[in-house]
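Case 167 in the screening queue. Each case pairs one protein sequence with one candidate compound; here the compound is heme C. For every case the pipeline is the same: read the inputs, emit a complex structure as C-alpha cells, and attach any notable structural observations.

Predict complex for case 167.
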Amino acid sequence: MNIIKPLTLLFGSILFTFAEEIDETLFKRGYEVYKNNCSICHIEKATLRDFSQARLNVLSGRRPENIDAPPMNLVSARIKEFFPNEPEFIEFVKDYITNPSKDKGVCKPAAYSFFGVMPPIGQGMPEADKEAVAYWMYHRYSENWQEMFREVKKLQNLRKLKRVEAE
Ligand code: HEC
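Case 167 output:
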C-alpha cells in the first residue's frame, strides 16, 4: 500500500489548520484606523533600544521622552499576556478604547502615572472600525512581552558592564 499519499493528506491538513489566515481587507482597514486615530499618541513600533531607554527613564522616575503613550507593539504584547486568544484580545481592545479606565487596564502602573488614562477615543467610532483596529493590533505584532523584557534587561546589563569597564 502506498503510505505517502495518506500521510501527505494528513500533514497537509494539519498545516492548513495551523497556518494563520489573515483577512487582508480587515487588516488594511485596521491600519487606516490606527493611522487616523491612534498614531498621534501611539508610535507603531519601539525598538528594543527605545524600550530600554524608556525603561531606564521610568526606573529613575522620569517620563519616557518623545512619546505620549506606550508604543503599540508594547501595548499589543502586553495585552496578549492577559488575553492571548484573538476573540478576547479584540473584545478587550474594543471595550478599552470606548471606556478606558485604570481599573480595567493591563498596562504597567507607570503608563498611567506618566501619560494618564487614554481618552475614550472609541466613543462615536463605528463598531466596524473598532473591530478592524483591534484585529490589526492583534496580527501586526508577534513580539512576546516576557521575551522583550528579558532582551531589554540583557541590553541594560551589558551597558552597565561597559560603564564599569570604562571607569
Ligand atoms: C490622546 C492620546 C491617545 C490616543 C489618540 C490613543 N491612545 Fe491608546 N493609550 C493612550 C495612553 C496614554 C495609554 C496608557 C494609559 C492607559 O492604558 O489608559 C493608552 C493605552 C492604550 C491601550 C492599553 C490599555 C490598557 O491599559 O490595558 C490600548 C489597547 C490602546 N491604548 C489602544 C488605542 C487605540 C486602538 C487607539 C486608536 C483607536 C488609541 N489607543 C488612541 C493614549 C492614546
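Case 167 observations:
- The chain has eight helices and no strands.
- The CA atoms of residues 76 and 88 lie 13 Å apart.
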